[in-house]
């Protein structure tokens, strides 16, 4: 009798691990419903920066070059850092936000709603503390840029732009945790509406500050800071008064200080996003070329276009993080695995469509940023065609901008191409070999603070082993 039960349990477990096309299609539909508004919201947020660069580009090469270099340095040392810290298990302002995404997602999946508020408060405090040394760096940015050989005029303009981005940096320190807080609950539409409203306000505000009030570069930075805080206000009002956040909404607790160590433990490894740094490093190196004003402005146009494309897979990655962390926290490892492959399928389709579109429009995209023939036309089209390779993770031909020596260029081409192919291959192997059941157990142990807690709560909080939409009956 006992043997029959063991065999029956083994057959049940094996059957549960089988996934049908219908189950995959169901998960694909679920992911698509979350991904579409999330991608639009992510792109809308990045368009704030694009709109500012577009308007500054019509002021002249010096202004565009200064904003390009300032944006590169502020992204590397500030905004990208915060995002990564919030995304730690999935993917420095952007990088610090990464720890929160996993913790909140697993807590929500395990129905530990109170912990979402604690984690969000903890992340906000942590990011605000990280902003302090970043601000000092931005204030003295001109001296740093001149030290590494940048044009003094461009360095001075870049410093002015960065200083007026500091209020926006603190706005992002609050905004990023709020976005992860809503995202892990699949509350995507509030972020979508908020992002579209802010984008609609940002364009006239930026145009007025840059051209009407003649603030130039500073006006573009002020507009970004204003838009960041307006976005914070809208989302805070939604969290405070919406019934959808009733379960997870809580007042500030001193427990937020106690989990800061856990937050940084998971978040700091994600703060090292070398691919992001390598892209921004190209902009800084372009300032060392014989004609830095022209070369920096051209590269700024190319990288702004390609980064705009990268926001789409980042949106898909955010959805993948939400689905996977929710399912792992709920104890559904198979559903988490299927969610990963569903998002990968969407990413392949998106890459193909965007790469083709970017290549076909390569001759006209540059004119949105500048009317100067030297900044557009063939030179930008060459950059755009190269940047279509970015869609496949190959940062190869960008080396031609920086290295005049053919042997060095060929060496860089081969190294970058093979490096990113190997990187993608390794990630695919790791994903394919992941023990999802083990990851689900680890997630629930983390949320319930130990294996014993999981066993004690199993009867009160028993998850569905696998979603009906994912597995066969």
TrEMBL record:
Subcellular location: Membrane
Transmembrane intervals: 34-56, 62-88, 118-141, 161-179, 191-211, 217-237, 257-277, 297-317, 338-365, 399-420
One matching Pfam family: MatE
An example molecular function term from Gene Ontology annotations: xenobiotic transmembrane transporter activity
GO cellular component entries: membrane
GO BP: xenobiotic detoxification by transmembrane export across the plasma membrane
Keywords: Membrane, Transmembrane, Transmembrane helix
Compositional bias per record (Basic and acidic residues), positions renumbered to this chain: 456-473
Membrane topology: Multi-pass membrane protein
Annotated segments matching region Disordered: 454-473
Main location class: membrane
NCBIfam families recorded: matE (TIGR00797)
Family, per entry: Belongs to the multi antimicrobial extrusion (MATE) (TC 2.A.66.1) family.
PANTHER family: MULTIDRUG RESISTANCE PROTEIN (PTHR11206)
Protein name listed in UniProt: Protein DETOXIFICATION
Highest classification ranks of the organism: Eukaryota, Viridiplantae, Streptophyta, Embryophyta, Tracheophyta
Encoding gene, per UniProt annotation: DTX14_2
């Amino acid at each position: 009798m006992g043997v029959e039960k063991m065999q029956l349990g083994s057959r049940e477990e094996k059957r549960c691990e089988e996934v049908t096309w219908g189950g995959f299609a169901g998960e694909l539909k679920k992911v698509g419903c979350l991904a579409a508004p999330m991608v639009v919201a992510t792109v809308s947020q990045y368009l704030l920066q694009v709109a500012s660069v577009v308007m500054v580009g019509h002021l002249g090469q010096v202004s565009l070059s200064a904003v390009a270099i300032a944006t590169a340095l502020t992204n590397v040392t500030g905004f990208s850092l915060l995002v990564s810290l919030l995304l730690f298990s999935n993917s420095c302002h952007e990088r610090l936000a990464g720890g929160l995404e996993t913790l909140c997602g697993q807590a929500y999946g395990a129905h530990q709603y109170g912990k979402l508020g604690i984690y969000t408060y903890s992340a906000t405090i942590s990011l605000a503390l990280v902003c302090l040394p970043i601000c000092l760096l931005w204030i003295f940015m001109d001296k740093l840029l001149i030290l590494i050989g940048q044009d003094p005029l461009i360095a001075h303009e870049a410093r002015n732009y960065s200083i007026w981005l500091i209020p926006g940096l603190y706005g992002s320190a609050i905004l990023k945790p709020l976005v992860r807080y809503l995202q892990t609950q699949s509350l995507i539409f509030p972020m979508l509406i908020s992002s579209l409203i802010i984008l609609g306000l940002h364009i006239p505000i930026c145009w007025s500050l840059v051209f009407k009030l003649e603030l130039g570069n500073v006006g573009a930075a002020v507009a970004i800071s204003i838009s960041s805080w307006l976005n914070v206000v809208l989302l805070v009002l939604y969290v405070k008064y919406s019934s959808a956040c009733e379960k997870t909404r809580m007042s500030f607790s001193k427990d937020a200080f106690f989990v800061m160590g856990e937050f940084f433990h998971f978040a700091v490894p994600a703060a090292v996003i070398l691919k992001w740094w390598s892209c921004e490093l190209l902009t800084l190196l372009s300032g060392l070329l014989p004609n830095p004003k022209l070369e920096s402005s051209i590269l700024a146009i190319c990288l702004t276009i390609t980064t705009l494309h990268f926001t789409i897979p980042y949106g898909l990655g955010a959805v993948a993080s939400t689905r996977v962390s929710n399912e792992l926290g709920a104890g559904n490892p198979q559903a988490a695995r299927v969610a990963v492959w569903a998002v990968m399928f969407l990413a392949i389709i998106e890459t193909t469509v965007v790469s083709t579109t970017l290549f076909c429009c390569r001759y006209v995209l540059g004119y949105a940023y500048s009317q100067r023939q030297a900044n557009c036309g063939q030179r930008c089209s060459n950059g755009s065609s190269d940047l279509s390779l970015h869609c496949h993770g190959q940062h190869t031909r960008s080396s031609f901008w920086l290295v005049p020596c053919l042997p060095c260029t060929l060496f860089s081409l081969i190294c970058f191409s093979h490096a990113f192919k190997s990187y993608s291959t390794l990630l695919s192997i790791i994903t394919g070999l992941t023990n999802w059941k083990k990851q689900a157990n680890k997630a629930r142990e983390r949320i319930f603070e130990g294996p014993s807690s999981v066993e004690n709560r199993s009867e009160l909080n028993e998850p569905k082993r696998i979603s009906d939409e994912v597995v066969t009956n």
